[in-house]
Amino acid sequence: MRISVIGCGYLGAVHASAMAELGHDVVGIDVDAAKIAQLAIGKPPFFEPGLPEVLTSAMNNGRLRFSTDIADAAGSQVHFIAVGTPQKPGGYSADLRYVDASIESLLPHLSDGDLVVGKSTVPVGTAARLAELIEAGSGASLAWNPEFLREGFAVQDTISPDRLVYGVAPGSRGEHATELLNEIYATALAADTPLVITDYATAELVKVAANAFLATKISFINAMAEIAEVTGADVTQLADAIGYDGRIGRRFLGAGVGFGGGCLPKDIRAFTARAEELGRGESVAFLKEIDKINLRRRQRVVDLTVGALGASVYNAKVAVLGLSFKPHSDDVRDSPALDVAVQLRGLGADVVATDPQAIDNSRARHPQLQYSQSLEDTLQGADAVVLVTEWPEFRHLDPVWAGSLVKTKTVIDGRNALDPAAWRAAGWTYHGLGRP
Ligand code: UDX
């Protein structure tokens, strides 16, 4: 099938490449000429494992090309909208300007029977509004098909999703949309991927509800960590024990410095704002608490570090391990790790931060921090070590080797990623989150 993907950021670039990998004929379109130029030579402008390989192979097979001209969408039967919906500056709601602009620019190039498919995360009610615009301005129709990919596993999550959701119009328009989407996702459907066919509002809500649930799970265990900290309990054992209950499950019960990234934080805030607009603010008021618990955990890591350094935080060397919001990503949007590094620097500490992938993005936002590519240089002479992103190389750090480099053997494990017994045996003072 001929497909256009409008918006070649994180979501769009992965989606375009994955669709081409599945055998479709894809054009990726973006207004950002620099981004398109990079993609066109097979180099994604961000780090995502497996993406360069899929991108290059699809381009070599002639199934994937990129353009800055929206007119190149003409001739495709299905047009995915994969533009960003960031948090509005100074507010909590989602900024829909890129979604609106992409639909407006696409409208003149749509033909009868075309299907526009929204993938961006939007406030509930957006699809119904866009469907009216599309139907009034062309013979095309709209479906909403939310994306659940995780950074670091984005290609795999797109090619083999754990479920598919189609929000479609009632009647024949919806049947036509379902047929086209079934053709696009034939490989996943053949592998028995669960499929939910529903209305626009449900499809939009599935996405925000899923992210709200995940955020709630993380803040729940982080709230338990706060209680563990004043009672001497161990939150990691608590998580294991409650996680064995199949109704609860152990995943997303990792207590630590909290969640970040381009989705969870902004999505729960936008959901709260939308619910308030709908007169149902109280239904999701708990999400404000989820956000507050999450932000308190960053403060906790800063406080533990300052507590360990005592009055000498000013000019003390703090080695910060990790900058991205999670491992296997170079994304520093709303990153707890970067936030902790910036706060410690603000208190006068001499922060040196390292990360396998996220130094360039961090430097662009916070040039006042010192960065090092070398773990050894980062640790050398440190008065405290703060682990804030659990990259495998930090998780498996040898406490004896690290101890031979630092000045003071104090470690603050902001991800509960280290083995306290091994670190203490090597002479370290170990501080975890929610662990004695
Ligand atoms: C998330 C959703 O998982 C995905 O389905 C959606 O499409 C986009 O948002 P992503 O932002 O890539 O994906 O990251 P995810 O793996 O969900 O992690 C989010 C944050 O939660 C990270 O900062 C991570 O470190 C943190 N986290 C995760 C925890 O603090 N504890 C956990 O147990 C799990």
TrEMBL record:
Lineage top rank: taxon: Bacteria
EC number: 1.1.1.22
Keyword field contains NAD: yes
Positions with a binding annotation for NAD(+): 30, 35, 85, 121, 151, 266, 333
UDP-glucose/GDP-mannose dehydrogenase C-terminal domain ranges (all copies): 319-420
Residues annotated as binding substrate: 148-151, 207, 252-256, 260, 326
Gene Ontology biological process terms in this record: polysaccharide biosynthetic process; UDP-glucuronate biosynthetic process
One Pfam family here: UDPG_MGDP_dh
Catalytic class of the enzyme: oxidoreductase
Pathway: Nucleotide-sugar biosynthesis; UDP-alpha-D-glucuronate biosynthesis; UDP-alpha-D-glucuronate from UDP-alpha-D-glucose: step 1/1
SUPFAM superfamilies associated with the record: 6-phosphogluconate dehydrogenase C-terminal domain-like, NAD(P)-binding Rossmann-fold domains, UDP-glucose/GDP-mannose dehydrogenase C-terminal domain
Residue numbers annotated as active site: 263
NCBIfam families: NDP-sugDHase
Family in the record: Belongs to the UDP-glucose/GDP-mannose dehydrogenase family.
Protein name: UDP-glucose 6-dehydrogenase
Organism per entry: Cryobacterium lyxosi
